Amino acid sequence: MTGLFEEYSAIIPEFSLFQESLQRPIPTHIRVNCLLIEPASLIHLLEEKGIQLIQSFQRHDALYLAPRLASPGNLLEYFLGYIHPQALTSAIASIALAPRENSYLLDMCAAPGGKSAHCAQLMNNTGLIVSNDLYLNRHISLGHTLSRLGVLNAMVTGYQAQEFPSKQRFDYVLADVPCSCEGNFRKTRDTSSYRENKGKENLPDLQKKIILRGFDLLQENGQMLYATCTYNPEENESVVDLLLKERDAELLPIDAGFDFEPGITEWKDKKYDKRLKNAARFYPHRLDSVGFFMARIGRRR
Amino acid sequence: MKRSQHIETASHLKVAKVGLRAFQRVGNFVKPTTRFIQTFGRFASKAKLQINMVQLQTLLEGGEIPVDLKLDNGYVVLSTEEDRVLGLGLLINGKIRSQLPRKEIRNAMLNMESNKTIVSQNQNRED
After folding, report:
1. Considering the domain boundaries, does residue A8 fall inside one?
2. What's the domain count of chain A?
3. Domain residue limits, chain B
4. Domain contains A138
5. Ramachandran region of residue B35, left (φ > 0), alpha (ψ -120 to 50) or beta?
């Protein structure tokens, strides 16, 4: 394979392995919804159907690889709200944020709701989650996900993320922002193609507005997670770099028990804040899932 | 959702949906939602019925299943043989009708449940 994401060859380690990994389909991962069922019971139920689950990480008993399960949405357990098909790296975002019980959390771009529901699970359905998404048509999938998974502690709002009312102060803010979604791409068919950044030139501007507003909405001791599913530094390190320049922000280490590459501090002719090494880049040849970027942010003390 | 400082703070927001919808009005009646029952139905102490996959299929096809329950007419919590709460049925004169959301229970789900029986039979043979 040639040409695909070539511009990142200098920043993605073992680039040929990375390109090879893009030719394999994204494996099916599921998250057990511990609000409604214990992982051991779910594993037993699926084993009875001949479905094998492999725990993805020792430290997290809710995340599983389902190697031969093509359509988890066709399981009765999906209807029952026991499972949620979710990219492994998406699930890692909520784990990296690690919201405590009884806290107040804002999910700025929440639809279709997988991360909000995961946060509700981590918070054991306590506290309050504001699941925000601008687009009313996306509220349908958002509301459906939250109710199917038995989430009791969430409310749905429809503000523009970058203009979310600034009088609120949250313990946690999750900003999984609109992005070019490069990390989702796999060339599994001859017809698969990726139109690099076509029509997506304005994304960094929007992302910068969102990260600034998200940070301003934090409590004094609050924490924010900025995440994208793209490799593009313009949408990742460049955005966080702006935050570090314009606000008293600090990058907190991410220790969730997963392998990742540190954020980069140089891209083309640009230099970024050295603290960006604390950010995390997930690549499919290292962790076989959607490519992802995340930065955990707090206020500087 | 319990009254809390968070709720008071969030009450200033323009809200589209809060929490889990528990009931909806159907004509002159109030019906618990499927998701509410799936979340809290396990706490029901009466008006419960376990059904097998054949009975579930019958209900989903619009049929009725005769039951011998000493209950007044009304809603019944339906669960699988493994005691997994599916949602509601409606008991009328000794027969249960489905109140389950047919669109959300795909045929593929029922086929997978049938596979379970085959897998189980194969495992028994291996044993």
Report:
1. no
2. 1
3. 21-104
4. yes
5. alpha
Give me the catalytic one of A109, A119, A179, A229.
Answer: A229
* Residue B126: partners with Cβ closer than 8 Å, 6 or more residues away: none
Task: Write the pLDDT tens digit of every residue in A3-33.
Answer: 789 999 999 999 999 999 999 999 999 999 9
Q: For residue A214, what is the domain's CATH number?
A: 3.40.50.150
- B68 to chain A, closest Cα gap in Å: 26
Q: B115: nearest CA in chain A?
A: A49
The interface pTM score, or ipTM, of the predicted complex is 0.90
| The CATH number, out of the four listed (3.40.640.10, 1.10.3720.10, 3.10.25.10, 3.10.450.720), of the domain defined by the range B21-104 | 3.10.450.720
Best residue of A41, A147, A218 to probe chain B, by most B CBs closer than 10 Å: A147
> Which CA distances in Å does A131 have to A3, A95, A114, A138, A162?
38, 17, 11, 11, 14
A179 assigned to active site: no
Helices (H), A37-178: 39-47, 76-79, 88-97, 114-122, 136-148
Of the residues A33, A68, A106, A155, the best mutation for testing chain B's interface (the one with the most B CB atoms within 10 Å of its CB) is A155
Confidence of residue A255 (pLDDT cuts 50, 70, 90): confident
How confident is the model over B97-113, as pLDDT tens digits? 999 998 898 887 888 77
Q: Is residue A65 in some structural domain?
A: no
Is residue A6 in a domain? Answer: no
Smallest CA–CA distance, residue A146 to chain B, in Å, is: 8
Rounded to the nearest angstrom, the gap between the alpha carbon of residue A237 and the centroid of all alpha carbons in its chain is: 16
Q: What is the mean pLDDT of residues A65-91?
A: 95
